[in-house]
Design a protein that fits this description.
Structural class: alpha/beta
Low-confidence stretches: none
Strand order of the largest sheet: 3-4-2-1-5-6
Strand content: 5-15%
Number of strands: 6
Number of helices: 7
Largest sheet: 6 strands, parallel
Number of domains: 1
Helix content: 25-40%
Shape: globular
Order of helices and strands: EHHEHEHEHHEEH
CATH class: Alpha Beta
Bound molecules: farnesyl diphosphate
Length: 235
């Protein structure tokens, strides 16, 4: 990529369009998720290569449980397959976190994600956040609850709560700000993704379906991001 490009420090991706990709090919929707998972691996490695510091991918939302049970099961089983070898990233320097409410996940999945977090916690490369049973509103409620507990235990006074205190209870505390949120597949919605973090994110929407998404598409999104003037409320 050309030198003058601004590489976003943190990118959020809504990996959308798997079902439509499969339908177009006369395949079951789950085939789209399988291809989507391969693309996720490729794009993660590419992000590290071009110098992105953190990547957050929306793998399963708090609302996705309302899909047919067979599809939920297929996504969870696909996840299990990938968790076996830490998404194929063993030996790579990624620090892998899982964000979202994990208590609703199956015990074997919880065990695996804790193990992956533990083994990768001292890695110094790309921070990869995999959003699983994640909802932006749910994350905000969690943070509010944690702050409530801090008040009760006398650690903080209500009037001392500021944005930094709130931020410290979000799942991405201490990580670079989310500079760019990317949604392929033609939809232009945030869908409960990174609601706190997206306050000043740039949004890039693209028509490509996620299973067709390539590093060249990411380059295109970064070029668009680079050309934007970020004012953060100033002039
Ligand atoms: C959105 O496409 C995709 C999902 C709800 C699941 C995302 C899952 C993966 C990419 C694979 C599993 C992930 C990992 C990390 C192993 P959609 O089904 O809503 O597509 P549609 O809008 O075309 O129906």
């Amino acid at each position: 990529m050309a030198e003058e490009l601004h590489i976003p420090r943190h990118i959020g991706i809504i990996m959308d369009g798997n079902g439509r990709w499969a339908k177009k090919r006369g395949l079951p929707r789950t085939a789209g998720h399988t291809k989507g998972a391969e693309v996720f691996q490729k794009i993660t490695r590419y992000c590290e290569k071009i110098g992105v510091k953190a990547l957050t991918v929306y793998a399963f939302s708090t609302e996705n449980w309302s899909r047919p049970q067979s599809e939920v099961d297929a996504i969870m089983n696909l996840l299990r397959r990938y968790l076996k070898d830490a998404f194929g990233f063993k030996g790579e320097n990624f620090k892998i976190n899982f964000i979202g409410e994990r208590s609703r996940l199956a015990p074997d999945i919880i065990e695996k994600i804790e193990e992956i977090e533990e083994t990768s916690k001292n890695n110094t490369g790309l921070i990869l956040n995999v959003a699983l049973n994640y909802g932006g509103r749910d994350e905000i409620v969690h943070a509010a609850r944690s702050l409530g507990r801090e008040i009760l235990s006398g650690k903080i006074k209500p009037e001392e709560i500021d944005e930094a205190a709130f931020e410290s209870f979000t799942y991405t505390a201490g990580q670079p700000p989310v500079d760019l949120i990317l949604r392929p597949s033609g939809e232009q919605r945030i869908s409960n993704f990174l609601l706190w973090q997206c306050a000043y994110s740039e949004f890039v929407y693209m028509d490509t379906l996620w299973p067709d998404f390539t590093p060249a598409d990411l380059d295109r999104a970064i070029r668009e991001y680079s050309g934007r003037q970020r004012r953060f409320g100033g002039i």
